[in-house]
Amino acid sequence: MPDINRAVVLAARPQGAPVESDFRIEQRPIAKIAQGQILCRNLFVSLDAGFRNWMDEDSGDNVLPAMPLGEPVMGLTLSQVLDSRHPEYREGEYLMARFAWEEYTLTDAGDFISRLPAEPRAPLSHYLGVLGDTGLSAYFGLTDHGRVQPGETVLVSAAAGAVGSIAGQIARIYGARAVGIASGADKCAQLIDVLGYDAAVDRTAADIDAALQRACPDGVDVYFDNVGGPLLEHVLDQINEDARILLCGAVASYSATEPLPGPRNLFQLTTKHASMHGFMTHLQLARYDEARAVLGGWIDEGRINVPEHRLDGIDNVGRAFCDLFRGANFGKSVVAL
Amino acid sequence: MPDINRAVVLAARPQGAPVESDFRIEQRPIAKIAQGQILCRNLFVSLDAGFRNWMDEDSGDNVLPAMPLGEPVMGLTLSQVLDSRHPEYREGEYLMARFAWEEYTLTDAGDFISRLPAEPRAPLSHYLGVLGDTGLSAYFGLTDHGRVQPGETVLVSAAAGAVGSIAGQIARIYGARAVGIASGADKCAQLIDVLGYDAAVDRTAADIDAALQRACPDGVDVYFDNVGGPLLEHVLDQINEDARILLCGAVASYSATEPLPGPRNLFQLTTKHASMHGFMTHLQLARYDEARAVLGGWIDEGRINVPEHRLDGIDNVGRAFCDLFRGANFGKSVVAL
To answer: Are A168 and A196 in contact (CB under 8 A)?
Structure first.
């Protein structure tokens, strides 16, 4: 059994977007396992921009507590049980867990943990992406709240991100026209070539309203928002009657030092009798197996392409997290340990 | 048959809140009725702040066209058919119609018109208020989108207004705790004494957050918003999980010369997995009879008190409209002609 752990600790609270020096590697001894505990090897770390919130001293929400300075950064991992003294876990099992950015985790299993199926699909890292919280966010959002109908226009922000890269493809499976928003011509081209989006909008366009209008000539029926912030005001001007707006993520806000201005045209929701839905995917844990079966089927049929932004080694976890805020990733970001 | 009409015409486009001099009375001859037309006597004019939008040259929405300068102001009336050359209407019938602010309306009945029941309830003006678009907005909003459950807290803005005065009472009938927001201590006292609200929040309080917290110690489950604007940001900070926000009106915005700032904390909808619903009551026309039966039953049982802010005569219509923006009304504003 290993007795030395390497962990990424929060060296400084990020000011705005995180930088590599906000994190540092520390070696720590691994205590002897006690009754009721499990020792896990963390195979993959998932990088999720939302965790930036809890790096602040006051995150402004109560979803998770603020991360302590000098302690391993809380995150989401794909882990395997190495040793178990806990009645509910056995050696060899694969878990998706809210563990820290570290090579091994010794825990009383009181954290947020879900099991992978007994015979997991390959590659395992998909359980952090398309078959994990991000892919399931795309699925639950579009299915439960989006109620996407054939022929509708579904607009997705951060369309190349972990959630957006799956959302656009699900929208097309549901028969909709999928339009993605990303920054820069290269990423926009990839949206169409790699992810099958019908059209792309460059977030850096000089006239974003005109760009949205060109890409969505029939208006927007469903907006799957992963970025929050000022973009929403532009999109609200383009919504159709009975539009559904899905508030999934707000990457534009997580690292903002001041609250970003809100949309001044929310009354569009009234005149268009439209709705806006916030949702937290991890509350749907009981439906994960069902949703994974559907998504897994689509992957097998070649209807979903799963791009991954993958780095290796614990030393690269901090950098991979910072990459999210530079938009350096295409698809789900993971680090293989 | 009358041959002289008196009408309130739009003398000037209001700058900000409307003032009396934006309107003037004109006498106009009434043309001879032609085949396919009806001539109506307008018994009551309904005053609805939302119509302020279409007094601008560009309302920013497409719900109704901008009102032409120098022409009778478009509004909502309770009218009786005096003479009919139209196969679908007969003399004596009562209508709720999108007619102008004038004593008589000669029309080919192509406008938005709904019929009162063959045996209307008394008083007739209720069909512009509690049994009209405003009361039905309260009913449909809380029933369809609010899905109010016993024990929940329902917060209502512009709580003494035409919609709010009914919404609070319906919330209580549904078993909720009703909290109203209005401006000034007098109005707040009336919310409790006349409308049966459980608690009131003074919009002019120095610390609105603390005032909301005091009035809603268990948080807000449903927010019925009739004012829009900056108040929403304060309320979003107090919402519970699975909260529903109903965007009915935006009286704070109708007369704003610049768009008001939007809420900077919309991400609360995500972390609280809450939703926001815009709705337009007149689209539910097919359900008006059903809803009127329910509301009428509650009035008969003494469970709904129906305050009315009533003025008399066409000369007072402009003033009654301006009163809405001064918050001078308590309950539904109508002018009896």
So the answer is: yes
- Looking at the domain A133-282, which fold is it? Rossmann fold (3.40.50)
Q: What is the ipTM of this complex?
A: 0.91
Domain A4-129+308-336 sits in CATH 1.10.3860.10: no
Residue intervals of chain A classified under CATH 3.90.180.10 are 4-129+308-336
Burial grade of B54 (CB within 10 A; 0-12, 13-18, 19 or more): middle
Q: Where in chain A are all domains bearing CATH 3.40.50.720?
A: 133-282
User: Residue B334 pairs with which residues in a beta bridge?
Assistant: B46, B310
Using CA atoms, how far apart are residues B26 and B57, in angstroms rounded to an integer? Answer: 21
Compute the distance between CA of residue A12 and CA of residue A18 in angstroms, rounded to an integer. 9
Domain B4-129+307-336 has CATH 2.102.10.10: no
Q: Check CB contact under 8 Å for B261 and A264.
A: yes
Chain B partners of A233 at a C-beta cutoff of 8 Å? 262
Q: Could you please state the CATH topology (level 3) that the domain comprising B135-282 is classified under.
A: Rossmann fold (3.40.50)
CB contact under 8 A, A253 and B267: yes
* Chain B residues touching A61 at Cβ < 8 A: 267-268, 271
How many angstroms away from the CA of B107 is the closest CA of chain A?
Answer: 26
Per-residue pLDDT tens digits of chain B, which is 337 residues long: 888 999 999 999 999 999 999 999 999 999 999 999 999 999 999 999 989 989 998 877 777 889 999 999 999 999 999 999 999 999 999 999 999 999 999 999 886 888 898 888 889 999 999 999 999 999 999 999 999 999 999 999 999 999 999 999 999 999 999 999 999 999 999 999 999 999 999 999 999 999 999 999 999 999 999 998 889 999 999 999 999 999 998 877 777 778 889 999 999 999 999 999 999 988 888 899 899 999 999 999 999 999 999 999 999 999 999 999 988 889 999 999 9
